[in-house]
UniProtKB/TrEMBL annotation:
Residue intervals of the HTH cro/C1-type domain: 17-69
Organism listed in the record: Maritimibacter dapengensis
Protein name as annotated: Helix-turn-helix transcriptional regulator
Domain of life where this protein originates: Bacteria
Pfam families on file: HTH_3, MLTR_LBD
Length: 267
C-alpha cells in the first residue's frame, strides 16, 4: 500500500525531532518544558500522529542551542523552506572561501597553519603546515589529509616526548568536537577501543602542577625539544551549515628557542 506523502514528511520530522532530542540529552518532557509545550505534543510529533506547525519548527530553531546542521535537518524534515544550506566544499563559492582563508590568513602566519572541517580533515595548509605533516609521513598537497590520523599515527606519537599528558588533552578536545561530528566520534571510539586513552583516568587522579598551557614537546632536529601549542578560530556570521564546523588551527611555539628553530626550518 502506498504511503501518503504527508505521512512520509511527518515520519521524517518525527525521526529528526527524536534524533535532535537525543543529541541534546533531553527527555520528551524536558524538551516540552524547554519549549513551553507538552510531553503529549512531543510524543505525537515523534510518532507522526501530529504534524509540526511552522511556528513550532521556528521555536525549535530559536529556543534551543542547535547547530546549523540540526536546524537545517528540522526544516527539511518538516517540508518547510529551509533558510540554511549545506553544500559540498567542491562548489565554486566554498572553494573561493577556502582559497581566501589560505591567502589572507595562513600565508601570513610564520608557523604551521591549517583550515580543518568538522571531521578534522585538512582542507587548506600553508607551507609550514605541509612541512610539519611531512615530518610525520603525512601528505596534504594532493589529498585531504586527516589531522586526527596524523596525531594518532605511530610516527607522531614516537616523536612527542610528553605523549601521555598531551594525549589526555587531545582526548577531551576530541570528546567535545565529536558531539557535532559523527565521523570524528567513530574515530574517537576506535582509539578508545584500542586502549589509546586507557591511561587518562590515572593521569587525572595523579593531578600535578604545571603552567597555564600544556605544550606539545616534539623531538626536534638533533634531539633538541620543540615546544608548541595551538590556537583555533571559527568564522563569524556563518549562514552555511557546511562551514559551521570550520576551524583555523595555528601552531604557536611557546619559547624563544622553539621559535628560532621553527623559523629557521620554515615550519
Amino acid at each position: 500500500m502506498a504511503i501518503p506523502l504527508e505521512g512520509m514528511m511527518q515520519s521524517s520530522f518525527g525521526l529528526a525531532l527524536k534524533s535532535m532530542r537525543a543529541d541534546l540529552g533531553l527527555s520528551q518532557l524536558g524538551l516540552a518544558e524547554a519549549l513551553g509545550s507538552t510531553q503529549r505534543h512531543i510524543s505525537f510529533l515523534e510518532t507522526g500522529r501530529s504534524r509540526p506547525s511552522p511556528s513550532f519548527v521556528i521555536r525549535l530553531a530559536t529556543d534551543l542551542s542547535l547547530s546549523l546542521l540540526q536546524r537545517a535537518a528540522l526544516f527539511d524534515a518538516a517540508g518547510m523552506q529551509n533558510p540554511y544550506r549545506r553544500r559540498d566544499f567542491g562548489t565554486a563559492e566554498l572553494t573561493e572561501l577556502l582559497d581566501s582563508l589560505e591567502r589572507r590568513v595562513l600565508r601570513h602566519w610564520p608557523f604551521a597553519g591549517f583550515v580543518l572541517d568538522e571531521d578534522w580533515t585538512v582542507l587548506r595548509a600553508n607551507a609550514a603546515g605541509h612541512a610539519l605533516f611531512a615530518m610525520f609521513g603525512g601528505e596534504t598537497a594532493n589529498t585531504r589529509a586527516s589531522l586526527f590520523e596524523v596525531m594518532f599515527s605511530p610516527a607522531f606519537r614516537e616523536n612527542v616526548l610528553n605523549w601521555d599528558d598531551v594525549s589526555m588533552m587531545f582526548y577531551f578536545r576530541l570528546q567535545a568536537a565529536a558531539i557535532q561530528a559523527p565521523k570524528l566520534a567513530a574515530l574517537l571510539d576506535r582509539e578508545r577501543a584500542a586502549g589509546t586513552f586507557a591511561h587518562v583516568p590515572e593521569r587525572i587522579a595523579e593531578g600535578g602542577e604545571g603552567g597555564p598551557v600544556l605544550p606539545i614537546v616534539f623531538r626536534g632536529p638533533g634531539g633538541v625539544p620543540l615546544r608548541m601549542t595551538s590556537m583555533s578560530a571559527h568564522l563569524g556570521s556563518v549562514r552555511e551549515a557546511a562551514i559551521e564546523g570550520l576551524e583555523i588551527e595555528l601552531m604557536i611555539p611557546v619559547d624563544e628557542n622553539s621559535e628560532a628553530m621553527l623559523l629557521a626550518a620554515g615550519q
